[in-house]
Design goal:
Blueprint (H helix, E strand, L loop, with lengths): L17 H4 L4 E3 L4 E5 L1 E7 L14 H14 L4 H17 L2 E7 L4 H14 L2 E8 L15 H22 L3 E7 L7 H14 L3 E5 L3 H11 L3 H7 L7 E5 L5 H10 L2 E4 L1 H7 L6 H6 L4 E3 L11 H17 L9 H16 L14 E5 L10 H11 L5 E6 L2 E5 L7
Parallel strand pairs: 3-4, 4-5, 5-6, 7-8, 8-9, 9-10
Antiparallel strand pairs: 1-2, 2-11, 11-12, 12-13
Helix pairs in contact: 3-4, 4-5, 5-6, 12-13
The structure holds guanine and fe (iii) ion.
The site of fe (iii) ion has 6 residues, from β3.
Length: 409
């Protein structure tokens, strides 16, 4: 069995058609099937899976308080957690997603249930115990009761996940996870920055997702959201910040200096982002970008759907007057593969010697009736692939999905 792959050149965001031309997709037997790198999803709220596609009718803060916090609170119940997480992890793998950066809930035990399921199903998973202890912004029924509790439970989770990783010999990594600045007290933000340093861990949070969040940081700290995170040592080269639709040029300079990445969540941003993230501009500012579904601010578990939306949103941004905003399918594919891998510092996302064999075998449904020019095939796969066309998925060379076995279900 291979756990590393054999082949080709560095894909590059700028060279539009290079992904296909570089054979980052490879033709395999049987005819009309293609081998693509598995996707990295840089932003999933695992406990929100039961409301994917529901309850998207309110702005961010009202959505959190009305629907999302009550749902996440249910993960106290481990039977509920197990059923929901088994469904989610299976669904993401079936959609070609081989690496995921997960927000869990506040509950240490339920987060470990998620970790065990990822280990059992063979998904590479970065998982965070959500820290949220600010009584002004979180409900009594769903909060860490104090900064001390948030920090203690984060540390317990780190140690138990690392133990589980060793016992199962799986690809699990704990992540420092302040929900976002409004949810946390200063003491928690400070302590989480210290824990990230102590254990040398990745960090995830939300930054400047909405006009509301941006203004909140200014009202509470007299600083921009990114500056607040930086003040607490939460912008590092291992940090991934979701959304960033409201990031200013000075924020992007700060991200660049700290080598912090952005998780672009194009479907979710339509509902909560207050605008479209200017992907090309962020890329030109030398800030690393990957792709995120943001389940369940985004309703779809499919990175294909998010790639499609990233291209469509960029076109609308250009139509609304932003020059040079448009990105291509190859650019968005780069985010979902190479970009996400770089953000997490793992050798995946490319079909290339020495890289992890994280792969998907995808059927090209329309080869009989459409152009078989190589770039056309690539775009067709990007726009038409659903999980029904993803026949096999591999993580580090181990098969994790085989649709033949499931009779196509
Ligand atoms: N900001 C804080 N929490 C959340 C969340 O659960 N989803 C999104 N999209 N933004 C958030
Ligand atoms: Fe989110």
């Amino acid at each position: 069995m291979i756990d590393r792959v054999i082949s080709v050149d560095e894909p590059d965001f700028k060279s539009v058609k290079q992904t296909a031309e570089n054979h980052n997709i490879l033709h395999v037997i049987p005819k009309s099937s293609y081998l693509l790198p598995g996707f990295t999803d840089l932003h999933v709220h695992a406990p929100q899976w039961p409301q994917a596609g529901l309850a998207l009718d309110k702005p961010l803060n009202e959505w959190l308080q009305t629907y999302t916090f009550p749902l996440e609170a249910k993960y106290q119940n481990l039977d509920f957690a197990k059923k929901s997480y088994q469904s989610l992890v299976k669904e993401l793998l079936a959609n070609g997603t081989t690496t995921v950066l997960y927000f869990g809930s506040i509950h240490t035990e339920a987060n470990l249930v998620l970790a065990q399921i990822c280990a059992d199903m063979g998904q590479r998973a970065f998982i965070g115990k959500v820290a949220m202890d600010n009584p002004d912004q979180t409900p009594d029924f769903y909060r860490d009761n104090s900064a001390q509790e948030a920090l203690e439970q984060t540390e317990v989770f780190i140690q138990r996940l690392q133990k589980l990783q060793k016992e199962t010999n799986s690809e699990l990594v704990p992540v420092i996870t302040p929900r976002f600045v409004p949810s946390c007290t200063d003491e928690t933000l400070e302590g989480l920055g210290q824990l990230a340093k102590k254990y040398d861990l990745p960090i995830q949070s939300h930054c400047s997702e909405s006009i509301w969040e941006d203004q909140y940081a200014i009202d509470r700290f007299g600083m921009r959201d990114a500056e607040v995170l930086d003040k607490f040592n939460l912008l590092t080269d291992k940090a991934v910040m979701a959304h960033g639709t409201q990031l200013s040029d000075s924020d992007l300079d700060l991200f660049n200096e700290r080598n912090t990445a952005v998780a672009h969540c194009p479907i979710s941003n339509i509902f909560f982002g207050s605008s479209v993230l200017p992907v090309r501009h962020v890329h030109d500012k030398n800030v690393e970008l990957g792709m995120g579904t943001d389940i369940a601010g985004g309703y779809s578990p499919s990175i294909y759907r998010n790639i499609q939306q990233a291209v469509m949103s960029s076109q609308m941004l250009q139509d609304a007057g932003t020059r040079n905003a448009r990105i291509t399918a190859a650019n968005a594919f780069y985010l979902a593969t190479v970009g996400g891998a770089k953000a997490l510092h793992i050798p995946t996302g490319q079909i290339k010697a020495g890289y992890k064999a994280d792969l998907q075998i995808v059927n090209d449904q329309y080869s009989d009736v459409m152009s078989n020019n190589e770039n056309d095939i690539f775009e067709r796969l990007i726009y038409h692939t659903t999980k029904s066309q993803i026949n096999e998925v591999y993580v580090s060379g181990k098969q994790v999905i085989n649709r033949g076995e499931n009779n196509g279900k």
